[in-house]
Amino acid sequence: MKPLILQGHERSITQIKYNREGDLLFSASKDNKPNVWYSLNGERLGSFNGHQGAIWCIDVDWTTTKCMTGAGDNTCKIWDCETGKETGNIPTASSVRTCMFSYSANMAVYTTDKAMKQPCEIFIIDVRTIDDSFSRQEPILRIPISGSRVSSILWDNLDESLITGHENGEIIQWDLKTGKKINSIKEHDQLINDMQWNKDCTMFITASKDHTAKLFDAETLMLLKTYKTERPVNSAAISPIAEHVVLGGGQEAMEVTTTSSRAGKFDSRFFHLVFEEEFARVKGHFGPINSVCFHPDGKSYASGGEDGFVRVHSFDSSYFEYNFDY
Amino acid sequence: MPVPVPEEPKSSWADEVELEGGALPPSTTEVFDNGIKIVTEYKVTEEGKKVKIVRTYRVEKRIVSKSIALRKIWKKFGESANDKPGPNPATTIVGEDVYMQFISSKEEDNKPEDEGIDKLKALGDKNVVKCRNCGGDHWTSKCPWKDTILAGGKLPDDKKPAAPGGPGAESNKPGGSKYVPPSLRDGGAKRTDGPNMARRDDNYCAIRIANLSDSTTETDLEELVKPFGPIHKLYLAKDKQTGLCKGFAYIHFKFKNDAAKAIARLNGHGYDHLILSVDWSKPMNSQ
């Protein structure tokens, strides 16, 4: 396969996401301009200019009208996808680490870092109408986190609860009506970099610095599967059509300069969802992969790396013909 | 998908004269019926060289849902506001081919290697080590015959009775450190008939075909001689510069009978308006 290489960023990619139909690919990086691309031919639709700091997270609603970014400049911004204009701006007390629209996109959540004597906090906001008063609007719910900070977040598909992944490897489920913990588990030992749903939001996969990715049941937080590697996993995604997961990682960015790209193992690794066994690899990046995601049709996937490139891979027929021996 | 093909500046002086004066030809776009679009652009690089850039695109039509179609006609914004329709080569490039490397399960991966090692271990020194002195399965330096008179003789019981006795013959033997060419070993005279004849046997299956036309190729030749029997080797003499046939070829048959048949049939045969002359190939040293 010939990947499309998208070179719109000057610094490392932090998160990439497809919209619901998969025709657009949103990419956020540590330079301050998130980009949006046509996933089919790699054409850049535009960039969202306005942030002053590293963008840590990006999300798009299900109608692809609104896009949300959180950045290190202590703001969380809402953008209009069609024009690229900034429509809403929420100033925060510390940098915004994660953000996500709820399934209906009536609400959105963002979390702030524990920094500058500010605690880590979860904010739930109403995003139905975005006008001039938006930045002064009070959040619907504020949950201060006393322990380890939130490093990744997921809405459940009924907009009733939240799942947060924490720096110490903890996973907590929150009830939104009361703002209380429903459930919490600690299956990871280190920072959870990324969490992603499967297609029907019944399971989610976590990617952790402790060299594993794990599959959990969404309702009970029961550990279902563990995918072991020998390096930190920065991102993991579940194929919407096959029983495959893709893991992206590599050693930490600070150690990259002291290892060769061959030894660094910066390839995307494909595991079987059920048998937890690796069956394929795809090379390409020359830095660790920070974010991977499957196209919603499952026929291609994209990866964004520390090297600042986004690579969009369309699978060959060999991938679809491959049968896992068991 | 775009496949940019940067081209060298034109080398023809006539073209350079035409382009002189700073006026670059306008960029052209050709659209073909089969969905191929070729865009030709001219520009001056930083070093002042004029470059022609030809990009070939395949235009694809896809039927998509309304919402996607609507998004396709959105105007570009932000950093891309000034981009033309289609991917901008500055931000989007098609990468080199990468392949998905499929991994069979790890146990299987390790097995063959281990088996190989086990096999070698089972063999022990038997076939791996061979003594250069006596051919036994031990290191040469540990040969029990090392310091005896037999050192250097092939197999102790083989040639010894055949070699004539006497001090003269003994000095001729390939012993000690002195190299003796094979033709002189065991008394040069002895070799001339017997073993050499046998070795030249393959020469006797070789035939020489002359008076071939210069357009003959190896495939033609193969077709010509194949019906006679299996071929061991085929050599067609070709001119180094032109690559054309020099007019003769050597064919080594596997069997002598086939070679004889070929000579009988092909000698005087008309091929490519020329009459072939075919005979046994003469041995190298006699030429």
Automatic annotation (TrEMBL), chain A:
Gene Ontology terms for molecular function: RNA binding; translation initiation factor activity
Heme keyword on record: no
Keywords annotated in UniProt: Cytoplasm, Initiation factor, Protein biosynthesis, Repeat, WD repeat
PROSITE patterns: WD_REPEATS_1, WD_REPEATS_2, WD_REPEATS_REGION
Subcellular location: Cytoplasm
Subunit comment: Component of the eukaryotic translation initiation factor 3 (eIF-3) complex.
Name the record gives this protein: Eukaryotic translation initiation factor 3 subunit I
UniProtKB/TrEMBL annotation, chain B:
Listed name of the protein: Eukaryotic translation initiation factor 3 subunit G
Compositional bias segments (type: Basic and acidic residues): 187-199
Subunit structure: Component of the eukaryotic translation initiation factor 3 (eIF-3) complex.
Pfam family, one: eIF3g
GO terms, molecular function: RNA binding; translation initiation factor activity
Top-level lineage group: Eukaryota
SUPFAM superfamilies: RNA-binding domain, RBD (SSF54928)
Family statement drawn from the similarity comment of this UniProt entry: Belongs to the eIF-3 subunit G family.
Principal location class: cytoplasm
Purpose: RNA-binding component of the eukaryotic translation initiation factor 3 (eIF-3) complex, which is involved in protein synthesis of a specialized repertoire of mRNAs and, together with other initiation factors, stimulates binding of mRNA and methionyl-tRNAi to the 40S ribosome. The eIF-3 complex specifically targets and initiates translation of a subset of mRNAs involved in cell proliferation. This subunit can bind 18S rRNA.
Organism (species): Ceutorhynchus assimilis (cabbage seed weevil)
Region Disordered, annotated ranges: 154-199
Residues covered by the RRM domain: 205-283
Protein keywords: Cytoplasm, Initiation factor, Protein biosynthesis, RNA-binding
Gene Ontology CC: one annotated term: eukaryotic 48S preinitiation complex
